[in-house]
Structure formats: C-alpha cells, structure tokens
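Suppose you are handed a protein chain with no further information: no name, no annotation, nothing but its sequence. What can you learn? This example shows the usual starting point.
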Amino acid sequence: MSYDVAIIGSGVVGLFIAYELAHYRVRVIVIDKETEPGFGVSKGHAGVVHVVQPPFNSLRSKLAVEGNRLYDGIAKRLHVRVKRLSTLLVARNLSHLIALPAVWLILNYVYGKRGFRVRILGPWGLHKREPNTSGLGAVEVEGYGVINSFELVSQLFNFCRLNGVDFAFNTEVRSVRALDDEFIIITNRGEYRTRYVINAAGLYSADIARLFGDEYRLEFGKGVMLVFWGEQTRNIIAPLQLIPNPRTKGGAIIPTVFNTTIWGPSLSVSGRDDRAVNEDDINVLARKFSGLLRNRDFTPIRAYAGIRPIPEGDDFIITYSRLSRHVIHLVGIESPGLTAAPAIAKRVVEMLSGAGIELVPKDYVKEVEPMVMTKDAIESGGTISDDQGEVVCPCMGVTKADIREAIRRGARTLDGVIFRTGLGMGVCQGMCLGRAIKVISEELGIEPRELTKSGGSSWLVTR
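A reasonable first move is to predict its three-dimensional structure. Written in structure tokens, the prediction is:
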C-alpha cells in the first residue's frame, strides 16, 4: 500500500507527529521494530515535563519551553494524568547559598519573562515549602510537571488508530530505495511506498539516516533510576549545580503520578542495549540525593535504566536529508525529548508543508476515550461488573477488567499491560505476575508460553 507519510519510530516523538498528521487528509503509517509503541527511548525515563534546560540558547531548550506550554491542553484532550509542581534547586553549603541570588537572576531573566515564576527561598521558606528537604535555601522554578508517560503513549497510539493512522510493529527497516516521486521502504515484513519519510527512530536514528546517505554520530547515555514506594516530597528536589552540565540536568528527587518517588537519573556513556543496573549505580544515586532529605525511611522497590541518544553538539538535530526535502531526520532527541515532543511534532509538520505536502484538515476527528480503571470507577461512585471486582494486582488495584481493557487498547505483551494499568508496579513489585500472565494469555487467546515480556525472545514461561 502507498502512503503520503511514513514515520519510522513509535516513541513519544513519532506518536506526536502521527497525532498532528491525524488531523489532516493524509495517509500515514508508523513503522517500528518493537512489538508495541513506546518500547524504545520512551520506555525508560522519569516522566518529567521540564522548564530549565541548559544551554539556554539551544534548540532543545527552546522546544522544551514550547512543549511545556502545550501539555495541559494535550493532557486534557487525551485524558492523561499530569501533575503540575515546582523544582527546587537546593543549596547544601555556604558557597551555594551565596550563589543563590546569581542563580535566581539568570533563571529569572531566561524563564521569568517566558511566564515561569522564579523565586528564592531561605531556610525557613524551604522548610515550609518542603518539610522533608534538608538545605540552607533554594531557588524555586514553577511550571514543571510529572506525567504518566505510559498513559500518554497509549492514548496517542489509540487516538492515531481511531483517526486512520496505520501501524506496522515488529517491522525492521532494512533498506530504502528512492524513486522519482516516492520512496520504497524495505523491511523484514515487506515493502511500503511513501512520498515523505520522517526518521524518528530514537536510538537507531543515525542508522536510518545512513540509509538515505546522511551521516550522524551518536553516543548512548545510560540513566539509572531508583524507585521508592511512597511520596518523599511534594515537588521535584535537585541539588544546586553552579556549573551546569550541558548533557544532563543532573537528576533529582521526583514525585510521580503513581505515589512513588524516583531518584535520578544518573548519566554514563554506555552501549545502545545496556540497561543493566549494578551496585555502583545505586551508590552514585544514594550519595547524590540522600543528603537532601531529613527523613530517609522509605522503601526502595525497583531500579531501572533508560538509554538516550546523545548527538555530536549535544543538541537536537531536526533537519531535511541532503538527499531530499521529502525526508526529515530527528537525530539525538534525548532529554528533554518528552517535554519537547509536542513542539517537535508541530515543527515537523511545518517542515513537511514547506517541502510541498498538501495538508487539508479533516472535516471530523474522533476523540479518544479515557481508560477508566476499576479503582477510579469506585472512587467516583460508579457501579462495577463481576470482572471489575476480580482483583489481580492488590497493590495497584488492577482487576481482570482492567487487563481486558488494556488489551483492547493494543497491549500484546506483559509490559504493554503493565504500562497501561500499573500492574505489578506496587510495593511488592510483582507477586501477582503469575496470575496476571494466566489472565493476559487467556484474554489474548494464546498459551502462557507464547506471551513475552516485551516482544522478541523475552519469554516468561519455560517452553
């Protein structure tokens, strides 16, 4: 089948581009080698909607501010949980305390005029704002947010499906052939013809660009995060850094929408497939963040790592291919890629228009329904059916009906169900998974030995 636009990559950036194009009369396909959307870079971050991003004159800093402003409207439309809060940059010693006015002056100059309130907190103000935080003072930057990024990916995916976007999963792009007015994308599952190509392949974006004759170099940064049960702070808490690292904001103590707390991420250069976590990684996080808290009596429940693509120049690369303006590369979309994603998508659509595609708005766009969990229905006073009363995961209140709904919305793996429902993400970290595997397999109509954790050979039950 022929398409107007082929998007390679179904992470949050690729999905936002598809979301924007779903409002127009164009034929769009999203191609991804993974089994489900968001299983690449988008799978391993902390779900923060950022404000501050050095260097302040960089493209990623500009797009982060633009994307931040779009999130409230997007979250409302897609029925995604987003919680607005502040980030407190905490001074732990006298030299940092003395530097607070200068830090405030710079951040207020850059972000205050953009509508984000920046203020200084003394010791008493810091304690009042965050009783569990230890420090001599802080600079507070308002306008941050934490979002359920798994819910965001799921709702973007379903919005696009409802509005005619096609998806090809488990589909690896192997080569490309350019014709006069279109491209043939050759994959392990056949060929796709398209007039325009968007390379949003995340960790593999440089490889895809190479198929079009464009060369980019990437490093891969591993960020380890430690998850605790319970909320340690009401806002994001980070140690003040007088010399910012342009590659990273340095990590923080982050409350999540799941009533958990994340420490991290760290950053180290690693391999593209290295998501291992060791004792040294945990010790790095403990040394950096434990001193920021008065009460440290919290239960660690999980550690995980995400991989980000770091480009030469440490800035987003969003550009036309040298081969053709009908090809747009997005290379090195790392942090704050989640924050910038809505703005990146609008930029790409403008570039498509500039390259000659005709974008005619649709007369009617279908709206996606919220995924209402059983526990939410109970809290709102609604009635529940038998399946909604059959609890599979007690920690997170996930029922058989919730699993069925996750599968209806596209889940085909254990991780797909986990990301849509929170299954196994509670304090016990998965004592329910044996029963859950049985329920998921029954709902998918497969044997438990056929179910995978995240696709490929990630089998859960011995064959």
